[in-house]
Every structure is written in C-alpha cells, then in structure tokens.
Amino acid sequence: MQIRLTVVDPLGPHASAASAVPAADRPARCDVLVTAPAGTALAAVASALAATLPGEGPGSGQVVLYAGAQRLDAQRSTLGEPPLIDGAVLCLGAPGEPDPHTEPAEVPAQLHVVAGPDAGGVHLLHGGQIRLGRSADADVALDDPDVSRMHCAVTVGPDTRVSVADLGSTNGTTLDGTRVGDRPVRFPPGALLRIGESALRLVPVPPAAEVRVATTPDGEGHVRLSGPGTPS
After folding, report:
1. pTM more than 0.90
2. What's the pLDDT at 199?
3. Among 58, 75, 200, 208, which is disulfide-ready with 105 (CB 3.0 to 4.6 Å)?
4. What's residue 206's pLDDT?
5. Among 134, 133, 112, which Cα is nearest to 122's?
6. Contact between 108 and 161 (Cβ < 8 Å)
C-alpha cells in the first residue's frame, strides 16, 4: 500500500543552533509517500513522519500527530483507514485547521474509474494539472500494465473547465473514441477517457449542500463513494 501524507508543523519551523539555514527559510510542511502493509499502525511510522520536518528527529521526544483538531492515537490509528488516507494532512504537536483543498465545495469534478484493474475508484479533481499513469509519482496512479508511467494529464482551469492531453504515452489516449494528442482538448462531463485497459469518466460535483454520499474505506488508503452521481 502507498499513500501520500502531508506533515505540517502548525507552530512553524523550529530553530536549531547547529543549523546553518535560518528557520524562516526552512519549510514547515513536507509531502511524504508512505509505503507500508495495509493495517500498519501509525506508531510504526510516526517518528519517521516527524523527522521529515526541520528541527525534528528521532530524539525529539514523543510524537503527537493531529488530523485537523483530532488527536490521533498512534497505536489505534491505522494507515489506509480514515483519517489516514491518501492525501491526508497531519499536524505535528498541535491541532490545525482542516486542509481547505479537501472541502467538497472546492471540488469541481470527480474522475470515476469505470473499467480496468482500478475500477470503482473515485478521484476528486482540484485546480491545476493532475497526471495519470502507472508510476507511484502520478497524481492518479493506475495499476494497469498497458498504461505508461506518466500517461496523460487532466487539467482543471480557473473557470473549472477540464481538459486532457497525452504525455507521450506508448499506447495512446482516447476521449469518446477520438485520439488525444499532446495539445489539450476539452474533457466534458460524461465523456469517457480510455488509457490502456482502463476507462475513466468525468462526473461533475453538485453544490456542497446537495451532496449526499456514503463513504467506505477500502483499507488501501482510499475511500469508495456511493450515492447519487457515483458508480455502482
């Protein structure tokens, strides 16, 4: 199992007398790719997560992590289960505000995997470029041998319009049966994107007040959605 976590120091970077880098110049957050068996307790990786931030390390004492305002029990919190799912933001030593990028109102669309090895997956699209591919470094990683490491890119513009472009893939990208090149083309809601043996459909998200979905953790760091507008 691989999940991406962001570790944040809400109190700011810690100065160190031995450090030649001014505290103000060191980042107070770090994105971490965690590889661990499903069911691993947070306690097994807590120290390593803390050590990714400046001024923290194995000798920094007990590691206390929060998800928003919730203090996490390192022994009972399990990687891959909410709130420790792919994209979670963890605060070190003090509670923090929820990541605004996880609010439903910020999500203009969802990308539903409707065919292929990852069928049933739902990915929330935010502003900017989202790379799809077989690589663990892809924003949407697909376990499909016919998908290139970095296969195509879906981009959500400032006006929430979505486009897609091929990234020089081996087997190509098609949108509703039409081949997609390296120049972005519009990706309208309901259109079917095919890469390798996988197919993905763009589904618009209704206003937050209208969203009524149930979530079920899959134990691999993601949640599956059910309800209106989600695949059965």
Report:
1. no
2. 93
3. 208
4. 62
5. 112
6. no
User: What residues of the chain score a pLDDT lower than 70?
Assistant: 1, 12-27, 55-61, 97-108, 206-232
Its CATH architecture, for the domain 109-204, is: Sandwich (2.60)
> Do 2-11+24-101 and 109-204 come out as alike in CATH topology?
no
CA angle 37, 41, 47 (to 5 degrees): 105
> What is the β-pairing status of strands 162-166 and 173-175?
unpaired
pLDDT confidence of residue 17: 36
Q: What is d(CA 219, CA 81) in angstroms, rounded to the nearest whole number?
A: 6
Question: In the chain, where are the structural domains located?
Answer: 2-11+24-101, 109-204
CATH code of the domain occupying 2-11+24-101:
3.10.20
> How many Cα atoms occupy the beta-carbon half-sphere of 116 within 13 Å?
24
Q: Nearest-CA neighbor of 202 among 185, 214, 217?
A: 185
What pLDDT shows up at residue 34?
Answer: 85
The C-alpha atoms of residue 188 and residue 91 are separated, in whole angstroms, by 37
Measuring CA to CA, which residue among 161, 133, 127, 165 is closest to residue 149?
Answer: 133
Position 8 scores a pLDDT of: 86
Shortest CA distance to 192 belongs to which of 202, 182, 206, 180? 202
Alpha carbons 52 and 68: distance in angstroms, whole number: 19
What is the model's pLDDT at position 21?
41
